[in-house]
Amino acid sequence: MLHNKSFVKKTKGGKVMKQVREHYLRDDIYCGAPSCTVCDTSNARLSASPSTILVLDTNVVLNQIDLLENPAIDDVVVLSIVLDEVKNKNMSVYNRLRAICNNSMRKFFVFSNEHHRDTYVKEMSGETKNDRNDRAIRVAAQWYQKHLGSAVKVLLVTNDKENKRKASEEGICAETVESYVKSLDRPDLLDLLVRPSSEDVDMEEVEDHRPSKRKVIYSEHKPMSEITSGLHRGIYHQGKLRVNRYNPFEAYVGSESIGDEITIYGRSNMNRAFDGDIVAVELLPQDQWQGEKSLSIAGEEDEDEDEEVHLAPNSADVAPRTIPQQGSSREINAGSSRPSGRIVGIIKRNWHSYCGSLEPMPIPGGNRGVAYALFVSKDRRFPKIRIQTRQLENLLDKRIIVSVDSWDRQSRYPSGHYVRTIGDIGDRDTESEVVLIENDINSRPFSAQVLACLPPLPWSVSSEDLSIPFRQDLRHLRVFSVDPPGCKDIDDALHCYALPNGNFEVGVHIADVTNFVFPGTPLDDEASQRGTSVYLVERRIDMLPKPLTEDVCSLRSDVERLAFSVIWEMTPEADIVATRYTKSVIKSAAALSYVEAQARMDDSRLMDPVTTDLRNMNSLAKKMRLRRIERGALTLASAEVKFQIDTETHDPLDIGMYQIREANQMVEEFMLAANVSVAQQILKSFPLCSLLRRHPTPTREMLEPLLRVSAAVGLNLDVSSSKALADSLDLAVGEDPYFNKLIRILATRCMSQAVYFCSGDLSSPEYHHYGLATPLYTHFTSPIRRYADVIVHRLLAASIGISKLPPVFQDRLQLTSISDNLNYRHRNAQMAGRASVELHTLIYFRKRPTDTEARIVKIRSNGFFVFVPKYGIEGPVYLTTRAEKGSGEWYVDEQEQKIKKMDGSISYSILQTVQIHMEVVEPQPNRPKLQLTLI
Amino acid sequence: MEYVSPEGLRLDGRRPMEMRQIRAEIGSVSKADGSAIFEMGNTKVIAAVYGPREVQNRSQQISDRALVRCEYSMANFSTGDRMRKPKGDRRSTEISLVIRQTMEACILTHLMPRSQIDIYVQVLQADGGTRSACINAATLALADAGIPMRDLVTSCSAGYLNSTPLLDLNYVEDSAGGPDVTVGILPKLDKVTLLQMDSKLPIDILENVMQLATEGCKAIANYIREILLENTKQLEYRRGS
Question: Looking at CA atoms only, how far is residue B13 from chain A in angstroms?
Fold first, then answer.
């Protein structure tokens, strides 16, 4: 069965080394056709009597993965050599291809040709690796044809001309993707095709549709070798390109080599780079460095592209971190000392699929319905994309997804291909879907395998659950939950009893999700992939299937539920005397909302037990909170808004800032305490593999914008420690009540986000959570909606000895990748939530143009950003219109954070209150936006 | 890193439960009393046995049994990078000790009091699993030298990567940093004489992995027995009886 074969390989590991690896050739690799009489057919994946079997070349997989994902393409043999090549070239395509191969609905069979006795080919002398692999593919295709006989046609699909020619010579049926798809007679599939770049396909097939524009627009990208040596010599700088959210013609590259942000103005300097690409930048000579004011995009011919905005971004992740040196004289612009550059090469592309719509255009007659259209991404940071379609009339009023394929020097826009349609433009569901897709959130229903992991429904606590020795029966306790109104996934409940010795017993009971989600099951994998539930304004995308989320795990009132409890004994001064952790069975007495709980506590006539408990807890929580603040915990603020949604039409009826009550703070306090206790416990047991959460201390640089604002309004903030900052934030009281909150919001924005990490990856001083001022923190209290909590539950269960630690925890790398994924999902969920709020704000104001009060939060050269407290909206206000751009009528006083008119008649300063008018306008079709104007 | 593809093949084309190709040759060092070459895939080890003979250093002499000594070394050319390996480094001292203890456990030392047996093993080519290969080679060489033993000792390693137990790790799999269990058994007596592990493994999985390694040892034992039988037949033939 074993055929030994050593072969020699040279690899680079800093130096050239000869490596010898064994390579076994086998005779037990089967063809995957169920009709085969020779092979073992138990793992056969192809259909019973296929007329054609496709063998794909690597270039087809790399370029046409969208097509392969379409179920119309089936009976495909994927060779292991192709998989290897794809894996080396593009990991994301590899993962997608693997997903297709694993999907039992699709008939994709992986044939390990490299280890098959008859299909292994040895590298011939003088043959390049590529040629050898191509030959291997041809040999495998030939083997298939011979193996399956003439009843089945084996078709090699390749876009490599040379490969195709050789295949035909060797008597293998070979076709290009285009001709194969054409033969299928499915026009919608043709749209999915990536148009080949000119080299691989004969020229006559490419009709030159834009003769006038066949001129070179962009300069050539430097070859990789030149870039590498340029980076070495320091003439090029490497970094990730971040395009300004408000001005797609302005981008920044954070470069480590010069320790500064390089600004890139204009599309030609950006030289076909996309947001997120890793690029190599060359600095322009200093006299070409452009100030913000002199920025001109006249060179661009796209009149319609976008109105130009000089406003720099508002969020910390896009904003350049440099502080413009304060120009003493007025002539020097704020931005002129910032280095500018141009992109000479792209080191790594960040192309993916984009959501948007087609630019409206007349439907051309004739031409067999093939039309070229411009796709406008919803995200303004991306340029338009040229696509070819045969179903133009269907697509014009739809939101669609488009992939980018190439961008050559002659074309102004990149070319791409249509992937799929989401729905009608303007439809709320469609737009919500777009939000989800843009944030890479999986909203598909759970698969059958996942649902098979659920416990039999209807589920209730059984005697077996009770008989488990480590599960404590706490049904007699008066447990209740306090949540937002209408909350269905209740993952925490509380109880509080006065003990005879004057202390209190306080318990936090968390839904015992790990009793239902076992490590390694499809359910667990799915949950770990999703990472978190996502809350949009009108819907929720669950991390766990609905029966678990809303019923089995949810600690609803008057039903028995399994819980994981943290029980403290506390003195009346809220000092923790003892802590214990146990799995339990509880029966919630009441599921209260924050409003109800607050009303009960405030109503002095009520003396029922639950209310008394609430009051006791509240007094404890207040003391805990006070102590926390003394330690230096920050009370930060964010502009959270709340919509009232019409129950019938799901349209927003009203919006307002989310109100925080004492009851919220009370519950929050106990959850924080539980998280801290659990963090201590798990770290004690598993110092190397605990999942914790940290919040890095912001650097002074990051807080600089806050300091500048506060200095301008005459406020002295001490940022030396979190305690000092918290105190000075408390002292920051202006003449109006909203002032303090505004400063807090600005402070929050300066800080980086808290992140999950694996305790073995960092040293213990780095575990610190700055915002909560605690040395250790983790997430334990919401396992229904956060996967991190599920992991922590498992760690805690293992640490108190009631279950074994799953093997994942042995593998540090895997644990790190899980925590990275959680951070990624968490951030995306937040972004999606914000985008959803934005979307609903738009829907709300579409019918209601409003005048309201706003505060200036950021000054720019041609306007400022305002924040509308009432609606939690932030947006730009322009002082100059497009026509009079750069007229120099206004100038910015950096020192005082003011923007003044030249003649000194009008000036606006930071945090000033202004009256604005809000209205939804559509400057470009299908890209509505909320416009704010001064009145 | 994917060490086992979803198709169930390892990087070198083996399935998880398969060993590399093994090959053995007896009598390759004619000057020694017994010698053997043992190959597991690209791992190649030579062993030579001298003895039983007079004890060289009188102070080490043991009155009721034989003294067993073992020296393990790696040839400078055994790995790709021609690095000069210092003799007597910690690793080789440890492996020497392991081999000595394993072999001592099966040699009937009480039959040869006041004598000395030297076992020299050298790795000619290293590709993972050198420890096991050395023990297997030493067994063959001892048998060739005609030293009385309780049973053959055979050894094999197994690991656990990508949640799959893998038999007989090669160098690439070995350097993945996962658990690596080396087991040595006395196949006829069905006893374990050597059990070592790098890294860590949950206890229930360890049992599976160990079981797998033991199966590997048994397969090697069958092969070694065949080789010895063949060798004996040849000797018989040469004697002309």
Answer: 5
